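This part of the workshop introduces the protein records we will be handling. Each record describes a single protein and holds just a pair of labelled lines. Instead of coordinates, the fold is spelled out as a row of discrete tokens. To make this concrete, we reproduce a full record directly below:
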Amino acid sequence: MATATTNTVDWKLIWAQRGFRYFFLAMFVSLFGQVIVMTLPGLFIPFFGGVLIDRIDRRYLGVLLDLVRGCFVLATAYIAWHGQLQLWHLYAMTLITGTGSAMYWATVNALVQEVIPSSQFTGANAAVLVGVQSGMLIAGAFVGFLYNTAGIAGILAIDGATYFVSAYCLYQVRRGYVSPRESQKYPREYSEATEATAEALETGVNPEVAEAGLSLAIYADMKEGFAYLKQQPLVLALGITHAIVMAGVVSANVVLVALANDILHAGPRGLGFLEAGWAIGAIVGGLIASQLPQSLRMPLYVVACAGLAVGHMATPFVAFLVGAVMMQILFGFCRALGGVVAQSSLMTIVPRHFMGRTQSAMAILTTVVQLFMSIVLGWVAQGAGLVVAYALLAVLYTGATVSAIRARQLLR
């Protein structure tokens, strides 16, 4: 019997289906929860985290963040090993690791500024980037080979163990307690509120004073951090450029899967090649950036941002896998070169007792732009097509290029 078809959407008929209503609610709640636990920490934790990074030893803070995250991941692995893993366990683990990650990268970037001579900032940032990209590349292959054998419990156990290895390595970076404020060159190092808070905490006589004074000190540090950024247009331009590039890199994953399926018709295998190409480009870019003379860094920074803009405009028209992989290599290369130049420049310019708040401000902006772009890209790709979606990414990177040009002008 022939079945009649129509192009008209009957919303009443769709919502009249009881099963579909529950299905829609389940999808909404699941994705809403996933976005909350992954994104919410990055929006709010850095406000407090930046102050904390600029108040206590970054080495100890990084060790603590690794240990806490490692314990929660291992606890989740233990639950999975006993066959009792539920969805809320994964949400809780993701919330804790996301909260830690919202502070971790700002912490370690600030720590690099302390333990490396200023003349070697570029090489150190390049080494960190190459290490991160190599680790991600190896980890992806490692999980792919081991998942069928080890299962989710084994993978989580390995993941949890890596946090403890990282904590040990951070602990070995140096000896003793080093305060970020020891070399402060600004007059307001200790206020009356801070001294009153310290006295109340030491004596324990007046906990109300301690609590109020601590809140006031944290607020004062946050206010000081925003004032610093407002007075430093070069730092602001570098931070905005870096945040836009990072947000664009992450949000581009929304359309990358569609590119592999709908344009390249390569499926998961093609997506793997695209991701590998990006990682290889990032490693090469990091290595080359470490060898650049000072006079070429900012001009190439502008070129890298412009290359991301032009490349994303052209990507949907490259309909064969080898060409698309070459484009991803270019994107990884440009992101790595730009990231190394931006971070090394910030480490040279920003005083170390402001570095935590500066990095945290960049992290907040990155999360906001990433969240906005991810939502818009999904909607645009579905409604208007991948060409328009990639054009939107090109516009975003054009904004980064303009900001990079501004940073170069200010640096002269």
User: Anything to note?
Assistant: The chain has two domains: 35-175+232-411, 187-223.
